[in-house]
Amino acid sequence: MARTGTVKKNGAGQFFLATLLLWLVSVVFEIAFNLRTELLWVIAGGCFFQSVNWVVRSRLSRDPLFVNTSVSLLHSIITSASVVFILLNQCLAKGLEEMFDHSELVGGTWKWAYPALCFSCGYFAYDQWDMLQYRLYSGLIPSILVHHLVLLVCFTLALYRNITINYLILTLICEMHSIFLHVRKLRRMAGIRDSNTALVKLEWVLNWTAFVFARCIPHILITVKLIKDAHKFGRGVEWPLALFGMVGMNILNVGLGMDLFHAFRRERSNRRNQEKSDHQNHVE
């Protein structure tokens, strides 16, 4: 049984590695033969996060999961700051009404939005490679690898055709919540698991707040906007692809919310058991 499971994991890994290599060949072809030098930001993003990986591995820890999570945390921080900067800059320059106009979201490109999306695309390629290299996935069809593959396809197609860039920037607001997901994972890996501490309680408050306001609500609003403006799209694949992607995002958010709730309830249960045990020891 164990041998069969290993073969299946290898099969999944080989498939996703092949798709990653095909993606890389495609990007290099666009840069080298179609002279799309603006796509060099994709390569820069991948190289940057791989370099950070090497630094963390050599200076802090050689644990692949710790290294991967640390780099992911940095990506979430950089992306969140970039998205907030881009949105504030556009809000001041154009105002909210013009900023969220259909033509602006689909055909326009906010200042710094293209390189920011490229940089993030490079990260997802790096992260896919890192998880494949160190087997940081599980299951016959690893959901995290599927997630990254879908993002790479959607991001890259948008970058090639230079459309819906602004829509994709809006979806990256969720990285603000990812910050707290990565912080929680690193905190637990560091052995800080006492849910009675003020730090852990604050982390949960921020985690839930960001989950609602930086992940769920923005993705729901984007989906509603897509449905409302469906008639404004052309006959191409842009609208079906965008809607399919956002529906997938919302489904993933539901699953993530359930996982968060179970983790929160488990930590509360552990805290109550610990308090009960401490009380009994005190009585004795």
UniProtKB/TrEMBL annotation:
Keywords: Membrane, Transmembrane, Transmembrane helix. GO terms for cellular component: plasma membrane. It is a multi-pass membrane protein. It is found in: Membrane. Residues 61-278 form the TLC domain. Pfam families: TRAM_LAG1_CLN8. GO terms for biological process: membrane assembly; phospholipid homeostasis; plasma membrane organization; regulation of membrane lipid distribution. The keyword ATP-binding does not apply. Signal peptide: none annotated. This is TLC domain-containing protein. It comes from Brassica carinata (Ethiopian mustard). The lineage of its organism: Eukaryota, Viridiplantae, Streptophyta, Embryophyta, Tracheophyta.
